Automatic annotation (TrEMBL):
Coiled coil: none
Function of the protein: GTPase that plays an essential role in the late steps of ribosome biogenesis.
Protein name as annotated: GTPase Der
Organism: Streptomyces boetiae
Signal peptide (from-to): none
SMART domains per UniProt: AAA
Entry binding sites for GTP 2: 205-212, 252-256, 317-320
């Protein structure tokens, strides 16, 4: 790497980043306008500028990768989701619910210029009951004269308030040090089972697509709530189900059964639950209701699964209702709306009649195999060499960026780092991804492609 003009240390850190397993999750919660998004942006710094190209339908990201003091973790920004619709109390409660379900540690942001409010106190109560470590961020402490205000926040009973100005960066370093102390090295919940233990499946989809019907169908009489099995209690909302001769862990099934019917806020809760289930799962089975047109909500859920980097199976449910006409339009909708996830195995099922239930397990196994597959550096560079020779990057401004070499730095999902002599256009990166899939398969898995450009 050094000879080719790359800084060896940076290359090593890039590869380590790409190779990392699941990261611990930090949730940033708090009332609207306390500065959560500002803080999240501050935490992310410039890391997000790394060129990355992921397939996705729409961008509704809530989870980002961050790094501080050489440690990497995920940050979940719970702000900005339909808070007006929900009302303050409900939206903050929903964030806290997310933090409880999916995060390994929580930053509670409070506006020091306002002081502790009833809402802050309510969320403190929820968080305390959950027993997750909480770091208290006293935000908007823009200068030393404001530090006295921050001291009022001791009254929340969360220990030392960390005075921070998310806007100017003041104090964020000290606060992040405290965050790292609170955050475990590896996530407690994701892939928490011993190697060889049950694989973790999230069954997701918008309300009424048939999630609980499918769960009931596959569980049959043999349903075992994990909670009830001595010694396996890790998460009382998971369920162990035997399918195709293998035991699977369906995560967050309580969320599927306990239906939150909040009129306006239901979407918001549903999104949080989906995000929480994805954090805990290795593979996602996204259900689509074929009786209705594929909606933005459907594509958004698929994007969440892709962005979370999980293996993906798409199950078209209620197939028993399909007539010729609807089938025609459905195929067109799939072609238009889901073209970016053409790589996901597809099963056409009916949770009601049991149609094609036996196809579900092979589809999940295929997706997990793609998710875990690895291409040797030799094979990859052979492939890249041929590709660059036959399809060079277009010349831009008199220059022609070239891929010099590449490596698969990690799996689950496959992560590639390409080293190039110049910036690679998005279209060319997509082309490379497409060719990678044609050559090596990767069925049912997102692929991460990051490009390092020689200075
Ligand atoms: P969120 O709703 O909690 O995500 O809050 P935002 O991050 O959108 O911030 C709300 C407002 O507070 C914006 O106008 C920010 O510029 C402002 N703000 C955020 N952090 C600070 C800070 O540290 N100091 C000051 N003075 N304003 C801030
Ligand atoms: P959830 O909200 O995703 O858990 O959806 P449910 O499992 O509660 O299902 C919503 C509705 O769709 C119920 O009335 C189910 O009976 C119905 N449903 C679920 N799966 C099927 C199916 O395969 N075929 C038909 N015709 N109806 C289904």
């Amino acid at each position: 790497a050094e000879q080719a003009g790359f800084d060896a240390e940076e290359v090593e850190s890039d590869l380590a980043a790409a190779a990392s397993g699941p990261l611990p999750v930090l949730a940033v919660v708090g009332r609207p306008n306390v500065g959560k998004s500002t803080l999240v942006n501050r935490i992310l710094g410039r890391r997000e500028a790394v060129v990355e190209d992921r397939p996705g339908v729409t961008r509704d990201r809530v989870t980002y990768e961050a790094e501080w003091a050489g440690r990497r973790f995920k940050v979940v920004d719970t702000g900005g989701w339909e808070q007006d619709v929900l009302g303050i109390q409900a939206s903050v409660a929903a964030q806290a619910e997310f933090a409880v379900e999916a995060a390994d540690a929580v930053v509670l942001v409070v506006d020091a210029t306002v002081g502790p409010t009833d809402t802050d106190e309510a969320v403190v109560k929820l968080l305390r009951r959950a027993g997750k470590p909480v770091v208290l961020c006293a935000n908007k402490v823009d200068g030393p004269s404001m530090e006295a205000e921050a001291a009022y926040l001791w009254s929340l009973g969360l220990g030392e308030p960390h005075p921070v100005s998310a806007l100017h960066g003041r104090g964020t370093g000290d606060m992040l040090d405290a965050v790292l102390e609170a955050l475990p090295e590896a996530p407690a919940q994701t892939f928490g089972d011993a190697p060889g233990g049950p694989r973790r499946i999230a069954l997701i989809g918008r309300p009424n697509v048939g999630k609980s019907s499918l769960l009931n169908k596959v569980a049959g009489e043999d349903r075992v709530v994990v909670d009830a099995v001595a010694g396996t209690t890790r998460d009382p909302v998971d369920e162990l189900i035997e399918l195709g001769g293998v035991t699977w862990r369906f995560v967050d099934t309580a969320g599927i059964r306990r239906r939150v019917h909040l009129q306006d806020g239901a979407d918001y809760y549903a999104s949080l639950r989906t995000a929480a289930a994805l954090e805990k799962a290795e593979a996602a089975v996204v259900l689509i209701d074929v009786t209705e047109p594929i909606s933005v909500q459907d594509t958004r859920i698929i994007t969440m699964a892709v962005d979370a980097g999980r293996a993906l199976v798409i199950a078209y449910n209620k197939w028993d209702t399909l007539d010729e006409e609807r089938r025609f339009y459905l195929e067109r909708e799939i072609e238009q709306e889901l073209v970016q996830v053409r790589w996901a195995p597809r099963v056409n099922i009916s949770a009601r009649t049991g149609r094609h239930m036996e196809k579900l397990v092979p589809a999940i196994e295929t997706a997990l195999a793609g998710w875990e597959s690895r291409v040797s550096t030799g094979r990859l560079n052979g492939f890249l060499g041929e590709l660059v020779a036959s399809h060079p990057h277009p010349v831009r401004g008199g220059k022609q960026p070239r891929i010099l070499f590449g490596t698969q730095a990690g799996t689950r999902p496959p992560r590639f780092v390409l080293f190039a002599s110049g910036f690679l256009e998005a279209g060319y990166r997509r082309f490379i991804e497409r060719r990678l899939r044609e050559e090596f398969g990767f069925e049912g898995t997102p692929i991460h492609l990051s490009v390092r450009v020689r200075e």
